[in-house]
Amino acid sequence: MIEELNKLVPDIEFSVGEQFSWSPKERKITYSKENIDNEGCWALLHETGHALLGHLAYKTDYELLRMEVSAWEKAKELAVKLDLEIDEEHIQQCLDSYRDWLSRRSTCPSCGTRALQEDASNSYSCFNCHACWQVSPSRFCRSYRARRPIKDNVLF
Question: For residues 45 and 48, what is the distance between their CA atoms, to the nearest angstrom?
């Protein structure tokens, strides 16, 4: 699969690492060689989607979610070119982790109302009770939904 992706995106470096990620600064996609199963291939296509879409940085939490959605859409296009299919439920589970993260960050700690992020800051303010709060700048401070076990490539 790496050879096929190299043909499709020759200007991107693919490098073995501990996790799947896209580095716009290095123009490099890192992937876990031990995890190149179905989900690993899908993650590799997703990171390649980020690269092809020119995703460099995001300013707001919502923008990050939009970038994740568009990277998965591009991954599905790549999958078709490689005669693969990405499980839609897997995509939605991945996106749910970002949706859950965004929901927790945007929920007012005082009254529970959802709020909008103030510009590119890590601050939110509530329309209802006018509370203000800061959130971590890290997108890695999010929980992931537990995945259902997979047996013989079938979710159950």
Answer: 5
Cα 67 off chain centre by = 8
130 close to 136: Cβ distance less than 8 angstroms? no
pLDDT on residue 155: 35
Tens of pLDDT, residues 144-153: 333 333 344 3
Task: Tell me the helix, strand and coil percentages in the chain, rounded to 5.
Answer: 40, 15, 40
Helix (H) or strand (E) holding 15: strand 13-16
pLDDT confidence band for 141 (50 / 70 / 90): low
Helix 38-52 crosses helix 61-81 at what angle (to 10 degrees)?
110
Cβ-based neighbours of 151, under 8 Å, separated by 6 or more? none
| pTM, two decimal places | 0.83
* Sign of torsion over alpha carbons 136, 138, 141, 145: positive
